[in-house]
Amino acid sequence: MKRFLRLFFVCVFAVVVFSQAYAKTYHWKLVTTWPTGIPWHETVLHFAKTVDELSNGQLKIKVFPAGSIVPAFQVFDAVRNGVAEMGHDWPGYWKGKDQAFVAFASVPFGMNNVEYTIWLMSGEGMKLANELYGKYGLVPLLGGNSGQEMGFFTKKPITEVSQLKGMKVRTVGWAADILKDMGVSVTPLPGGEIYLAFERGVLDAAEFSTPFITYPMGFQDIAKNVMVPGWHQTAVQLMFEVNKKAYDKLPAHLKKVLEIASRETQLWDLARSEYNNAKAIEKYEKDGVKFNKLSDESLNKLRKTTKAYLDNLRKNSPFLDKVLKSQEDFIAEYAKWKELRSGVSAYPYEDYIKGKHYE
């Protein structure tokens, strides 16, 4: 009888603890590096809504755009220090803390959005991300990938990278350093400050993101030329970061909710962005914007400069070298399949018959 009563009370205690875990409502703050006018604000709102629905209202996340609690470039430290439980950003902003963050954002001449997603979800990507973010008391989650960036807006057509020399250009990440090595003056402004600087002549050229993300920013009102392709960011991988102490206080099922919502948001953002990137190009063309391709010579020069720059960084950062090697191994392995499947890209029938077979 005593054994039965002991077992009964243990079961009752377990039920109480279990029910409390499911009954408690958690209220979190999420700070971002984006103003409300940039579509990535929608990405974050989508994630917060998904978490709310999957958790049946048990985990509620309130989104705060850049500047409402902290400035854009203080998001990382705000989450790290517990000012907010979560953040959302482009990891390359944090290269001053560790160059390896840029590898989780975009590598010049690197992986595209689909390849990044594969590497993160099925390869070593998230394992390595957890290792890096963990050093700062943070837990990373997938935050979307908006695809290849469109390039640099310029007032005059540019087809050679040498034409940028002496110009004042807005870009960020490793591309900023690579262009500096080629004699270009670079200013890494946050998104909300670019238009005004461009309009006032503080900048001679500017880029921010993909066609869809950039169009509402209105650069086409200032400059009618775009230097393409977006070699500097062949993908725009975004990430959420979660304060580890706050994360550890969540019951297991809510941790799983965050993971599932982040993966869904990754694919949602990818699909939405590529669909709207195509529509944005049509809008740009109607606005009179011209797309000017860099010469093969310029692209090869940029590629060589990029390799030399990254090789030097890797000498001083064993972890960065580890991350880039993981990416390069995946690229080499995946390249064989890309080559075998090539020749059947989905171009309009007339274009295909005329010889447009490859992406």
Structural write-up:
- With 359 residues, the protein is of the alpha/beta class.
- The protein has a domain of 165 residues: Bacterial extracellular solute-binding protein, family 7 (D-Maltodextrin-Binding Protein, domain 2, 3-Layer(aba) Sandwich), CATH 3.40.190.170.
- 50% of the residues lie in helices and 14% in strands.
- The strands form 2 sheets. Strands 7-6-8-5-9-11 form a 6-stranded mixed sheet, covered by helices on one side. Strands 2-1-3-10-4 form a 5-stranded mixed sheet.
- Strand 6, helix 7 and strand 7 form a beta-alpha-beta unit.
- The longest helix is centred in the C-terminal third of the chain and has 35 residues.
- The N and C termini lie far apart (75 Å).
Helical segment count:
14
Biggest β-sheet description: 6 strands, mixed
- The CATH superfamily of the domain at 23-146 and 235-275 turns out to be Bacterial extracellular solute-binding protein, family 7
| The first-level CATH class name of the domain at 23-146 and 235-275 | Alpha Beta
Strand content: 5-15%
Strand order of the largest sheet: 7-6-8-5-9-11
Which geometry do the CA atoms define? globular
The beta-strand count equals: 11
**CATH topology description of the domain at 23-146 and 235-275:** D-Maltodextrin-Binding Protein, domain 2
Order of helices and strands: HEHEHEHHHEEEHEHEHEEHHEHHH
Class inferred from helices and paired strands: alpha/beta
Output mean pLDDT: 92
Rg for CA atoms: 23 Å
The low-confidence parts are: 8-19
Helix content: 40-55%
End-to-end CA span: 75 Å
Tell me the CATH architecture of the domain at 23-146 and 235-275.
3-Layer(aba) Sandwich
